[in-house]
Amino acid sequence: MNKQLHTTLLLPLLAAATFATTPASAADGEAIVKKARCVACHTVDAKRVGPAYKDVASKYHDDKSAPGKLFEKVRAGGSGNWGDVPMIPHGADKISDDDLKAAIQWILSLH
User: Fold this and answer.
1) DSSP 42
2) Structure pTM?
3) Could you give the CA distance from residue 97 to residue 81 in angstroms, rounded to a whole number?
4) Are 100 and 71 in contact (CB under 8 A)?
């Protein structure tokens, strides 16, 4: 299997599998997004530069692969899902894997 296809298929699955065992309270998730400065572009209830967390939770509500997809989206960055403004990549030096997983779990709980 070529490396890009392997990465495209395997990483989201692995990330999704780890979310099943990653507990995060509302206070933890909110504190993490503040510490990582996600709030510079996102809020809970309203679109800022990026989508509101509640809109993200709504969009991915029934998607079991959402945690892995969102993990990869935050790490890689991108544009086109929520408008024309690109989201820059956020590496592990900006938010650790564990904190990112907890933040995503919290965001998805806001539906």
Assistant:
1) -
2) 0.76
3) 22
4) yes
